[in-house]
């Protein structure tokens, strides 16, 4: 999926996960060593798929995450950061400024010396429902995880 194809989060956007387990669990999220260790507390012999670039991915034989059981996450308590962030993807605003014309009502999150804008996957049915999104909390999670993931987006 390319950045240009994703819509941006606008001010006041709502979100509530419907726990449908359908869309986000087919995206083969990347995990880091800490997350692998947590997963092995429940599934001690679990081995992630390792891509040619050395990324550890949740990719099962059927093409989607092996922890998706009957439409629900079997490791909900320990689900990786990529799953916690979905369907949102923070991007430095200065990167988007070069490739997109941002709408006037885009939500901009200032953090340290940087400004961030969030893109989202509009195929997630939870977007537009529920409560306003806590983008600062999502961004902090993302920045912590970015230190460990090879390709967080
Ligand atoms: S994040 Fe979206 S796609 Fe994933 S379970 Fe929640 S509502 Fe469904
Ligand atoms: S870890 Fe859970 S939430 Fe994440 S992709 Fe797998 S089943 Fe879905």
Task: Explain what you see.
The protein is globular and about 50 Å long. The chain has helices at 33-42, 81-85, 93-97, 135-146, and strands spanning 14-15, 30-31, 49-50, 56-57, 68-69, 72-73, 88-92, 108-111, 114-120, 131-132. Helix content is 21%, strand content 20%. The protein has one domain (3-146). The N and C termini lie close together (10 Å). The model has no long low-confidence stretch (mean pLDDT 88). Strand 8 and strand 9 form a beta hairpin. The site of one iron/sulfur cluster has 13 residues, from loops.
Distance separating the two termini: 10 Å
Shape: globular
Radius of gyration (Å): 16 Å
Strands across the major sheet, in which order? 2-4-3
Structural class estimated from helices and strands: alpha+beta
> What share of the residues lie within helices?
10-25%
Low-confidence stretches: none
Write the layout of secondary structure elements.
Elements: E1 14-15, E2 30-31, H1 33-42, E3 49-50, E4 56-57, E5 68-69, E6 72-73, H2 81-85, E7 88-92, H3 93-97, E8 108-111, E9 114-120, E10 131-132, H4 135-146
Antiparallel strand pairs: 1-10, 2-4, 3-4, 5-6, 7-9, 8-9
One iron/sulfur cluster is lined by residues 17-24, 86-87, 124-126.
Offer a few descriptive terms.
153 residues, three-stranded antiparallel beta sheet, 21% helix
Summary, kept brief:
The protein has helices spanning about 35-40, 80-85, 95, 135-145; strands at about 15, 30, 50, 55, 70, 70-75, 90, 110, 115-120, 130. By secondary structure, it is α+β, with helices and mostly antiparallel strands.
